[in-house]
Structure formats: structure tokens, C-alpha cells
Amino acid sequence: MDAHRRARLTRVLEREGLDALVGTSPENVPYVTGFRSMAHGMFRGLELYGVFTRSGVGLVVPFIDAAGVAADAIACDRIACYGRFFFNYADDPGAVGRRVRDLTTTPAASPADALAGVLADLGVDPNRKGARVGIDESGTLPATWARLGERLAPAAVVPAYQAFRSARMVKSTEEIGYLERAALIAEDGVAAVLGMLKPGVTEREAVEVFEHEIVRRGASPFFTVITVGERAALADVYPTDRAVHPGDLIRFDLGCLYETYRSDISRTAVCGAPTEKQARYYGAILAGEKAAIAAMKPGVPASRIFEIGVRVTRESGLPHYERTHVGHGIGLEPYDPPTLNASMDTPLEPGMVFCVETPYYEHGWGGVQVEDAVEITTSGVRRLTRSPQDLYILG
Fold first, then answer.
1. Potential cystine with 124: which of 27, 119, 243, 345 (Cβ 3.0-4.6 Å)?
2. pLDDT number for residue 194
């Protein structure tokens, strides 16, 4: 584990009075251990645990995931598996095969038993009076939570999802690099779509081009919203065969996944010369987004950025503009904290990464949106996206 994550998680242990933090979700297990499980993303409720304590890091996986742990050379202070699976070994199974065999020699009878053993090996005794273990409830089903509470008693088992989110709120230099790369790949995908958009192209065809381009550049699809005409007023919908016609707005809201880190960017295009309303409304939301970004620096509360983004959008040509937030943190999850809304008083810190956005949706007319990724630096803000933010006009 790198020094940044260790410091962030240790701070949580101290603040919450915990002896251990246990990640359970496809985001938090890799954050603690570096291990990504394909099975974890396929089977809801599958039990994997990334364990952080003051004395070390542990990992609990189902028997089948021993193959991934070995192949990816995952290094933790303690690794345990549970359950049954069947691997066979040649006379010389190779380095990976030997590690798989070593990891699976004595599997635990249950995930809870494996977790209890790892905690004990890392110096956390559930039988100690006053012991407190924070478990990320976002990746556990109710029956699992109950079993863990029984197995780890008399230690107190407390929810820790928000604790993990607070730890992940400030990114390391490496994480920011991944987020920047994810944003730039998404921009390349948008550029590929803009290069082929014309009357007759459908939403499905545009989405296919975007996703092909990001895969070609080493990322994977995360979500892709490309809506046309009146459908540009629909937030977060799947593509259809609606084709582009002259005069249509085309709204992009999309992202990709690079090395487990996400991007979320937005752009808007119009097929032909924009109408006065299209130009004015887009100009208003762009002014609001740019004003919000310009105001971002360490110490400024998130709610202040929200107020500026909404006010400037209204003053710039959309007096009736309303919005619940003007951006959100991004990282391993699409919405990392903090959110830029009216009630969030969390001050911005260097290392936070946000997607700043001011979308507008009007049913029966269409929608416009611009969204960029930015990093909070010690002196202000740095935009991670590089493509032009203006309304794209398709000739």
C-alpha cells in the first residue's frame, strides 16, 4: 500500500476510534489491497474483504480468486481464502501455479472465519473488550452483515462506507494521473463521434463509435449517453435509433474506466447554425460552469461553488435555471465526495478531483450540457480536460 492511502486510512481509524477498516465493495477492496476481482463484479453479495489495520493489510477472497491474486502478484501482509474450487497442477505448475497452491492449502470454512483469522493475524482481537471494527456496508447483504456481527462478537461492528469515502476524497498523484488519462480518453471518444456526426446518424451508431474509440485507447465503457433532438432533454437514458436532423441539439454525457478510475465529461453539438435560444442557453450554462471552476481553490466550501455556478448561469441568459448540484467528486466511484450542492460545507482540499457541470434539460425542446474534470491544487484549480468547451457546430 502506498503512503498516501495508508495515511488517509490511518486518519480514519484515529478519527472514528476503530481497530480495523474492512472494505467489501469492488471499489474499496482494491483501494485497500490493490486486488481487482472479476467475480466480485459479476456476483452480487460475493464476499471479498480488504482489511486495513495499524499493523498491516489483509485480503480475504473466495477460493477461485486465488488465481487472480497469484497472477496479479498481489502482496498483502496476510491473505486468506475460503470455500471450494478445483485446480489441477502439472509436475511444474510454474510460479503462479505454485502460489495458487500455497494460497489454497488450508481454506477457511467460511468468509467470516477467514476474516476473523486475518484480523487476528493483524493484531485485532475481536474478543478484546471495546474492540471496534468498521465494515463497509455497501458491499454486504443484510444476512452477511448479521453473520459478521455474530462471528466477530463481542467486538462492535460498525458501518464504514462513508469512512472509506472520506478517505478516498483526496487523491494521490498516481490517482490523479489515472483520472486525467480517463478524461482525455473520453475526450478522444467524443472527437471520434464529432468526426462522423451528420444528418442520418443515429444515437446507437454514435455510441458505438465512442465506445470503440475508448476501448482502442486502453479504457473500457462506463456509461455513454448521446441524445439527439428532443431526446437531449432526457438524462441518463440508453441510445435509440433516433437519427440526427438539421437543427438538432446533440448532448454528450459520458465517460470511461481507466485502471479502475473513472471519467465523466459532457459536451453539446448542434447540427447546423444554432438558433438564438440554443446559443443563448448554451452560453449561459458555459458561463456558469466556467465561473464555478474559476472559484475553486483550497478552503472554499463546496456550497459556495454551487451558489456561484447557479447564479452566474441565471445571470447569463437562463434566469429560471435550477439545479440540485453543479458537480461531484470522481475517482473509483462515479460520485466520490464531496458533491457541489447547497448543503455541502466541506472545504475544498488539494488533491480533490471534481467533475463540474451545469446541465439544462427542457422537455419538448432539448438539452445542453458542459462538464469538465478539474483538480484542486495548492494554488487553485487545474482543468484535466483539454478539448474546447464551446458549442460544437456541425457543418
1. 119
2. 98
Q: Which whole number is the average pLDDT over 127-141?
A: 92
CATH code reported for the domain at 3-168 = 3.40.350.10
Measured distance CA(116)–CA(199) in Å, rounded: 61
* DSSP label of 196: T
Burial 352-390 (b: 16+ CB within 10 A, else e): bbbbbbbbbeeeebbbbbbbbbbbbeeebbeebbebebe
CB-based contact 75:85 (threshold 8 Å): no
Question: Can you read off the three cell numbers belonging to residue 261?
Answer: 478510475
Q: Which CATH class is domain 173-394?
A: alpha beta
Q: What is the pLDDT of residues 211-254, one digit of tens each?
A: 999 999 999 999 999 999 999 999 999 999 999 999 999 999 99
Amino acid at 85: F
Identity of the amino acid at 13: L
Give the strand pairing for 156-159 and 132-135.
parallel
Q: Which of 143, 196, 147, 172 is nearest to 7 (CA)?
A: 172
Helix-strand-coil split of the chain, %, nearest 5: 40, 25, 35
| Burial class of residue 288, CB neighbours in 10 A (0-12, 13-18, 19+) | buried
CB 185 within 8 A of CB 214: yes
Host H or E run for residue 326 = strand 325-329
DSSP codes, 349-384: -TT-EEEEE--EEETTTEEE--EEEEEE-SSSEEE-
Please check whether residue 288 is in contact with residue 300, taking contact to mean a CB–CB distance below 8 angstroms: no
Write the CB contacts of 9 (distance below 8 Å, at least 6 apart in sequence): 21, 32, 52, 167
- What distance in Å separates the CA atoms of residue 158 and residue 18, rounded to the nearest whole number? 9
Assigned C-alpha cell, 360: 439544462
